[in-house]
Specification:
Length: about 100
């Protein structure tokens, strides 16, 4: 993972990511049913005890990460979060 900043945003939280060293396929399953669904569930279990889950999810929402598990959410779950955020008139952050 990269460190530093992008668009003024600190990426230092990534140093504490529990998924560091994990198989990337676990966090970026190719599909949403069967084995890929099981991979996503396994990735989400890793996220449950990750100390940087909140900044990870913020990053994914703020940068429109449209694939993979970030902050304990799948792309479909983040899509719903973003939709609700837009419907709510775009308060400070998409939650
Ligand atoms: S919340 Fe999940 S995807 Fe994000 S850094 Fe932690 S383990 Fe990785």
């Amino acid at each position: 993972m990269r460190n530093g900043q992008s668009n003024g945003q600190s990426w230092n939280w990534r140093r504490q990511a529990k998924c560091l060293g994990s198989d990337p396929e676990l966090f970026f399953p190719a599909g949403v049913t069967g084995a890929p669904l099981e991979q996503a569930q396994a990735a989400k279990r890793v996220c449950q005890s990750c100390p940087v889950r909140s900044p990870c999810l913020d990053f994914a929402l703020e940068t429109n990460q449209d694939t993979g598990v970030w902050g304990g959410t799948t792309e479909d779950e983040r899509r719903v979060m973003r939709r609700n955020w837009v419907r709510a008139g775009r308060p400070s952050r998409p939650r």
